[in-house]
Amino acid sequence: MPATASAQPPTAATRRPLATLVDPAIRLEVLDAAALDRIHAATLELIETVGVRFPSARAQAIWADHGAQVDPGTGIVRVPGHVIDAALRSAPAAFTLAGREPERDLPLDGHHVWAATDGCGVEVADLATGERRRSTLDDVASICRVAEELPDVGFIWMPVSAQDVAPETRALRELAAALSITTKHVQTESIMHPREAAVAVEMALALAGNRAALRARPPLSLTFCTISPLAHEAGALDAALVAAEAGIPTGFMTMASCAHTGPATLAGTLAVGNAEVLSALALVELAVPGAPVYYAAAQTAMDLRTGAYTGGGPEDVLFGLASGELAERYQLPLSMGAFATGAHVPDWRAGLENGLAALAACVGRADMLLGMGLLAGSRIWSYEQLLLDAEILGLVRGICRGIPVDDESLALDVIRAVGPGGDFLAEPHTRRHMRERWSPALIDRRPPAPDGTPRVDARQRAHERALELLATAPGAPLDPALAAELVRIADTAGEPGR
Hints:
Elements: E1 21-22, H1 33-50, E2 52-53, H2 57-65, E3 69-70, E4 76-78, H3 81-88, E5 95-97, E6 106-108, E7 112-117, E8 123-125, E9 132-134, H4 137-148, E10 156-157, H5 170-179, E11 186-188, H6 194-208, H7 211-216, E12 220-225, H8 234-246, E13 250-254, E14 257-258, H9 266-287, E15 293-297, E16 300-301, H10 314-329, E17 334-337, H11 348-363, E18 368-372, E19 374-375, E20 380-381, H12 383-400, H13 407-410, H14 412-418, H15 428-433, H16 458-472, H17 480-491
Parallel strand pairs: 7-18, 8-20, 10-11, 11-12, 12-13, 13-15, 14-16, 15-17, 17-18
Antiparallel strand pairs: 1-7, 2-4, 3-4, 5-6, 8-9, 19-20
Helix pairs in contact: 1-9, 3-9, 4-5, 5-6, 5-17, 6-8, 6-17, 10-11, 11-12, 12-16
């Protein structure tokens, strides 16, 4: 059954196009070829000699069929390096994450950088009261309505957890809510069991219309987290295999943390995380050769004074750059955390951490940047932060476009015509290029008022704009019958024997 929009929401023709960075002109590398080779060699050595825990009978059978050493008692699998390398070569270097409409499709081809909301927040900073409260299913829909209006949000990562829905159907009801209100691609990391994955595939199939269309333009992708160090979760492995068989793109994300779930050194933590991701992606490729998969990473460092999540330190920036280089080495699309500051409110720390992380992700050429709108290391959703993150992304996009140098940009003819002491404001050349200059939506660049009163700050503007969007943004509702069908499918996850 194909998806059809209701008559009320704006059409693709009137909706603003997605904003993305195409082929960043600036490139920053932290690992040279020799360092990448050493990390790869260390990764294969870990997989082959230390092993990775795969507590899934299906995964263990696949590994055994391909010559791996499997210990059923511990679940630890040791795989020869050449098996990992060969499996990864079957993964496609590029594929598309589809939106409800073709205009919303996202090519993951190494030439585009897309940003998204992050996932699994459990609290919302209420705009009306300023208080923090538990997140709900209505919040999922509201956030998607607002994100639908923001060109800087390329796709939806399930932003918060529906704490008011039973755990048995929570992840799938969240998915139904998002798919029913946005035309953008939806990605989630909340599918944790093959039963849930099968239901998610059924929902995607209802949107796509048939299995061939689903494979050609999947409206859904699934991310699964590894368990650092060097382990996976059985349900996630089996769910990924179910999704891959249906053509749903899948990725595995390492969140190894220096001095806790990884060594205290960055290189050691990179090797641990790389072993986790590559082993999982290789498993998927062995089971379903050619399945669309992506590399995902959100590594950080533990604060050694408190044990807390840092979220935005220099380690995060360096990990982001290194992850881009590793994913490029394996010719895999990259999804990485680039926002989700550790700050508890949208303050200077949030701007500092998210600005540096987003810049590192873009110059590292990540395909997917996660975290817009979340605070406290992905715990608290903030509409204000979502809009501020969009402002940050616009600034970073302007930086990463670099400085083109050609006859048109050097503008010698214009300079000659204006001459010493002239003015370029009224020149046709200026009119041709003026929209290339970045113009903030929230930052007020005007000087203080004559009486010295400061201008309204960006956070206050973000607050006002968020209230306006929450009150007026219609989203893009599905045909009511199809939306109800998605809910019905989601609810089957809680049925006995499913």
